[in-house]
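Moderator note: this is an archived Q&A kept for reference. The question asked for a predicted structure of one protein chain; the sequence and the answer are reproduced below.
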Amino acid sequence: MDIFIAHLKRYFPKQKAVDDISFSFSSGQIVGFVGSNGAGKTTTMKILATLDTPTSGDIFVDGISVVQYPDKVRRIVGFMPDTLPAHTDISVHEYIDFFARAYGLKNPSRDKIIENIEEFTGLTTFREKTIAQISKGMKQRVSLARAIIHNPPVLVLDEPAAGLDPRARIELRELLKALRNQNKAILISSHILTELGEICDSVAFIESGKLLRAGKIESIAESMSMKPAVMIQARNISLDELLKHILEEPSVETAQITGNEVTAILHSEEDNSLLVSLLSKGVQIAEFRHQKAHLEDLFLNITEGTLQ
């Protein structure tokens, strides 16, 4: 399934919230939607979720226009907003059951579907608690359960990790990976760029309503001439000796000691001569890993920090 955002515009009287953006993503992908507050992320996501109407342009979900056929799109898109469920007198199970009924799920299958969703999101032991009684992390899980109850092939998640503690963020990350493995297309916004970089296949950068870059993280980094890096540890020599050996190699642009390892910036990611040369010199390599381009670095290089 392909999702194509086509020349999307959303203008307000004093603001161009979304200003002619276009990009696409497909099933089995997690796409990070990155930008500062007010950049236009939430507006774009609401249009995709059929909760707002564009000034012009369109979004096509499996070829279906969100403008012309919003009812059809709602059946195949699950939306998790950046606000938490605020109900106080309804249980977790009743909340999920309400939305299952709203999507037309009928028994006997509805009860089994809800049971499976509660198990998948880790809510089984909390199902009888009221929403007011559970933690923010559990409320995020309830919100995710609501978004996936009708098994949509497309998920739109607006700041799902906001305010979560480290353990809750890790657990959410694993849930998202499991959903990607179910071949869902996932668009996710977040300000926690380190974690976003670990799960995203691609990324789209937006600022002041305009799309700045979109594509695979590695491709964007390469197009910006951001050099590949490797992290190296050795067993039998000191860090200073390892650094000296590395700096002698023609494939290395620069290198420095970072913590308990050496970070080397290479001229080319495809050049394996550094590893071969170190081994030939008798260096016992404990670790030699390529470091992916960091989303924070890309964000700082691509955006200008302008707000609207």
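Archived answer notes: Residues 219 and 246 are 26 Å apart (CA to CA).
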